[in-house]
Amino acid sequence: MTHQAANLARGHPLPNRQRLLAHLRAGGLIAYATESCYGLGCDPRNPRAVFRLLALKQRSRDKGLILVSDRLHRLEPFLQPLDAAARTGIQRHWPGPVTLLLPARAPHWLTGRHAKLAVRVTSHPDTARLCHWLGMALVSTSANVSGRKPAKTEAQCRKLFGARVRVLPGKIGARRRPSTLIDYSRGQVLRE
């Protein structure tokens, strides 16, 4: 078993896969532990779900969102094709708490007013396991109302969102700050 496979096998119990997939396909929202806080997520291919998430967070549609996954190949359908050199360079950052802005072929509900999409291959074992288990990338934005502190626990998520969000059990990572954000093609760090 590889190191990554061993990490995917550990962690908090996952809910029934078929029910969770049905919830996501129907436009449902979930909250799950990430590197620094709980993340609020949904199926990135479902515009109704994304707009529900943005309304719940009171976040502008113009800002764009982050997609997170356990592997690059789950993010690639949302990106412009990557050549071998770009793929090698990008993968040096992952898995880890580094979000890269890459040229998008994603719909406007994910990119907002931007031509690039923020993506990350996570190092958080529960988040990676969830994406692997679902076989998909997820929207990943902090579980909060925009401008307020993000939720750090299941209990905080339940108090904040109630029944509007399905909260998954988990423990956040040790990182104190959001992921580092890099505009990859420009080599510019936008957030440390």
Describe what this molecule looks like in 3D:
The chain has helices at residues 3-9, 17-25, 47-57, 84-91, 108-111, 125-134, 154-161, and strands spanning 30-33, 38-41, 66-69, 98-103, 116-121, 138-139, 141-142, 166-167, 180-183, 188-191. It has 192 residues and is of the alpha/beta class. The protein has a single domain (3-191), classed as DHBP synthase (Alpha-Beta Complex), CATH 3.90.870. The strands form two sheets. It has a six-stranded mixed sheet. Strands 7-2-1-8 form a four-stranded mixed sheet. Strand 9 (180-183) and strand 10 (188-191) form a beta hairpin. The radius of gyration is 15 Å and the shape is globular.
- Name given to the CATH architecture: Alpha-Beta Complex
Q: Remind me, CATH topology? A: DHBP synthase
Within CATH, the superfamily carries the name DHBP synthase
Over the alpha carbons, how many angstroms does the gyration radius reach? 15 Å
How many individual β-strands? 10
Strand content: 15-25%
For the biggest sheet, the summary is: 6 strands, mixed
User: Average pLDDT value?
Assistant: 92
Please name the defining characteristics of this protein.
192 residues, alpha/beta, six-stranded mixed sheet, 10 strands, 30% helix
